């Protein structure tokens, strides 16, 4: 069973969102997503300054098996990206919620966080997929 | 969708946590809990056990069977000594490739190993082509591949006599009382053995091999990245009925005695096309290796371009090469671009990624040539 921290918000496309409490949010992919992808060999990161719309593709994670798009859970501007993933993409597998974070976004609307799934709701999606 | 077949190792895969996927009509493990990359690395550093029982194993019996097989295969079969194995191709009348296969001279008959997805068609092709004087027998046997630099040490404990085989030799032995047919060969670029075993003893032998501490079961995912790094073709991707052996850079699979200036020239399907291409070198495209300069994998189907943006070919297999540390691929390019060292671009998600034409194999083979 994969780890689903209770302090994060989630999407049904398996991204996680951490509310940094300062109007920004950090994004990544969930433990379940990295398990399903397998060994990550490449991450295509968005550019800092890019404006993201909810649901927009903003990057790609490639594993030995396949390429998988990243979808923005929120609307906002990319203010920081995890450059370390360029040389160490395996951080996504080893530490999906910490070292494997992908991007930090300045939110256009903080209220939008409330519309995302909480850990319980996301757990049910993961369980349903595994049946 | 039709029912998927199971190999004799279905329970073994489940007991080992194999993630099962459909492949060539079989339910096969794409990976085990270790994961594709670690399975790949384990095979390169120690020893991996692969279930390749889905492949077709065929015996061909009859008088002068080597001469008869040469009517269907461009390899030098008559010159293949007893106990030796050779890579060959089945060709069609237009010089395309129907399948690639291994051929073993087993004395009074020949033993063939063909691709799973092609086996029914291959057997029909053999029966039609060889006629009623020959018996083509499909075997109900399992096939295991034990691959990696520690394969010999493992084999030495279970069947020391098999360690006297060198690359592409074949002989029959017993392991714990199980009769096995062993070839020193594989599909990873490593030293290793391919072990044909009666179907009802396959599970026992696989579990026995996995008791050895160097041995881990390896899935299809790593099998693909290992063979790609070794520069070995995957039928249906890198070669098919639209590619000739010359275009596929497999001229070496057309035996010297079978060429125009040889002792037994031609006489196989498509010989006029293939032998003409060998002499005239007027084929338009060629299979080459490609190495990426960044990290983004370039996969099957990616279009290739020259520096001026002109389309020059297409990738037929590609992945990140865990042992190479770069994206590796193979594909077809116009012959004028085929020289190693040339720079090309592969289009991935609308971007042109730099790649270089590279010599294959991408890794140094560990074959034990004696």
Describe the structure in brief.
Chain A is an alpha+beta fold and 131 residues long. Chain A has 4 helices and 9 strands.
Detailed description of the structure:
The complex is a heterodimer of chains A (131) and B (370). In chain A, 21% of the residues lie in helices and 33% in strands. With 131 residues, chain A is of the alpha+beta class. Chain A has one domain (9-109): RNA polymerase II/Efflux pump adaptor protein, barrel-sandwich hybrid domain (OB fold (Dihydrolipoamide Acetyltransferase, E2P), Beta Barrel). Chain B is 20% helix and 33% strand. Chain B is built from 8 helices and 19 strands. In chain B, the strands form 4 sheets. Chain B has a 6-stranded mixed β-sheet, sandwiched between helices. Chain B has a 6-stranded antiparallel beta barrel with strand order 14-17-16-15-18-19. A 5-stranded antiparallel β-sheet of chain B has the order 5-6-7-4-8, covered by helices on one side. The longest helix of chain B has 12 residues, at 119-130. Chains A and B meet through strand 4 and strand 6 of A and helix 2 of B.
CATH class of the largest domain in chain B: Alpha Beta
Helix and strand composition category of chain B: alpha+beta
Strand order within the widest beta sheet of chain B? 10-11-12-9-3-13
Distance between the termini of chain B: 47 Å
Order of helices and strands of chain A: EEEHEEEEEHHEH
Strand segment count of chain A? 9
> Distance between the terminal alpha carbons of chain A, to the nearest Å?
13 Å
Helix content of chain A: 10-25%
Tell me which CATH architecture of the largest domain in chain B applies here.
2-Layer Sandwich
CATH structural class of chain A: Mainly Beta
Sequence stretches where pLDDT stays below 50 over 5 or more residues of chain B: none
- Into which percentage range does the β-strand content of chain A fall? 25-35%
CATH architecture label name of chain A: Beta Barrel
* Total beta strands of chain B: 19
- Describe the sheet with the most strands of chain A: 6 strands, antiparallel
- The CATH H-level superfamily of chain A is RNA polymerase II/Efflux pump adaptor protein, barrel-sandwich hybrid domain
Report Rg of chain A: 14 Å
Largest sheet of chain B: 6 strands, mixed
Mean model confidence by pLDDT of chain B: 97
Radius of gyration of chain B, rounded?
A: 20 Å
Organism (chain B): Aidingimonas halophila
Protein name (chain B): aminomethyltransferase
Keywords (chain B): Aminotransferase, Methyltransferase, Transferase, Transit peptide
EC number (chain B): 2.1.2.10
